[in-house]
Amino acid sequence: MNTDNSNSNDNNVRNIKRRTQALNSTNPISLRALTILIILFFTFIPHTALKTPPPLPILPLPSAPQLQWQLSSMALFLHFGPNTFTDSEWGTGHANPSVFNPTRLNASQWVHVAEEAGFSRVILTAKHHDGFCLWPSEYTDYSVKASPWRNGKGDVVAELATAAKEAGVALGLYLSPWDRHENCYGKTVEYNEFYMGQMVELLSRYGDIKEVWLDGAKGEGEKDMEYYFDAWFSLIRQLQPGAVIFSDTGPDTRWIGDEAGIAGSSCWSLFNRSDAEIGGTDPQYSQAGDPYGHDWVPAECDVSISPGWFWHASEVPKSALKLLDIYYRSAGRNCLLLLNVPPNSSGLISDEDIQVLQEFKELRRSIFSDNLAKNAMLNASSIRGGNDNSQFSPYNVLEDGIYTYWAPEEDQSDWVLYLNLQESLSFNVLQVQEPIHMGQRIIEFNLEILNGGGWKKVINGTTVGYKRLLQFPTVQSQYLKFVISRSRADPLISFLGIHMDRFSILSYASGITSQAHVNGSQVLQQFSIATDTKVLNVVCFDRAAKVIFGCSAQQFFDFATLHPYAAKNASNALVGEMFRITLSKPKRGNAEHLRMTSVVPLRSGFQPVIETLKDLYGVIYGAEGSGGFM
Prior knowledge:
The chain contains 12 helices and 23 strands. With 630 residues, it is an alpha/beta fold. The chain folds into 3 domains: 64-342, Alpha-Beta Barrel (TIM Barrel); 377-499, Sandwich (Jelly Rolls), CATH 2.60.120; 517-620, no CATH class. The strands form 5 sheets. It has an 8-stranded parallel beta barrel with strand order 1-2-3-4-5-6-9-10. Strands 11, 12, 13, 14, 15 and 16 form a 6-stranded antiparallel β-sheet that branches. Strands 17-18-19-20-23 form a 5-stranded mixed β-sheet. Helix 6 (188-205) links the parallel strand 3 and strand 4 (211-213). The longest helix has 43 residues, at 2-44. The termini are far apart. Residues 1-6, 22-27 and 505-630 have low confidence and may be disordered.
């Protein structure tokens, strides 16, 4: 057994030696093979493509509050105070506080009206030039606490702040530097201390304030007063870092230079604050901005819905068409539209103003809710990162928002977007947007259409910024070319849209131009309808009254459908309801006359309103060309 065990052990040792020698002899080959396999593996596996970084922003750039402000496009101004009750604009500061007694005041209604009309911000005149405070300030006795409203316990600012917060609407406050009530006005140190004390009250009691509005107005011959603007601005930054500060020259947003709500045809957010002085800025500089400006100070266009800034019983609001025209020339020119809609003496926004705001909203919806280029096929002169790079694809311009955009390759001089609408479409409005968080860039551009085998220029434009809207006579084409000819840096486009405005654009009929007027009203639209017996003319004016010459029932219905903002009646039936119109021949002569016999609201039954409709729409009874204006 010992011998057998000894032999077995010897055999095991020999076997181990042989295996070890074999392993040692093949190990170098295995390592080489492994190395080759690793090289082949990493050579043939697909690599993940690296993202192309965005282009560098071009200075100056908006701050976060400025960017949020510009994206809102519109805000509602609320002028309210003793002037509302005294039929005044600039109160003297001596009106008895007892005149302020809005028995039905409802700040939630103000906010609801703003929100329903598409306004995401409201700004209240917490103190106008008369010095009356809509909050119970501890620095003056001239405030709501001296009025009979809410038994002297009310606070308009608090009620509005609560309503705005509940609705998710941003709140801004206007605090007039000029104060016609306080005796310390004109005493530099004393008044600045007083003013900053009131500012602390407003900016520390009422939650988030998104805008502080500092009006530069002051009457002729008033006391000289040095305002400590730099100290005011610093205090606002401390108390409300998310607020933008408005004044003639910023620092965050500037006055456009007029109270008509109209910006310049070129409007830069760039501005040199060092070249401008509050109360002494060149209006032309304010309107245009400065392509070489070192500061980002976008413009705000303020205008009132009625002739005055405060409510007056005798005044009527602008028409929805007029507001649409203002919108094109404010929000459509890289500005924020600040539309004043003053509450009345009961403390509510008037029904007439609400009606116009709803019509204005419907006009915007009808025009801009449908981008006629939404199904277009797009191409570009170049794409940053190569033609297959979807990150900066031209198709990004069909998406809403500023954070996706088309970017061309660097150092190009040919910047073109090509659109194939896939069918021939009619349009008369161009909408363009830049990703302004990357800076404002475009200096000049144009839109062309393919017409008769060649490219035809439709419209030229200058600045774009957050939003540019351009109107032009209606054209029809399938193929479009958007050309950028000058830019401060490689241009970037975040949105491109084409739209059809059937309401405010003049359809160029024979003998009519965009400057045509009748009885002081500008002709906005004229079109002709051919029938078996005659040509019927329809003319639409910029005033509330519409004038129609000898239309048939169907033609008038087509007109009312085309202009839904006009489809209203004395019972305030909803927009878009149907009119029943009959044709009859009068006893005198044989001419065919249009006669309105009734209105049939789809929801509220039959109600004759012949004379009301006559007043509303200015229908001319008479054959073509034989009637007079009503």
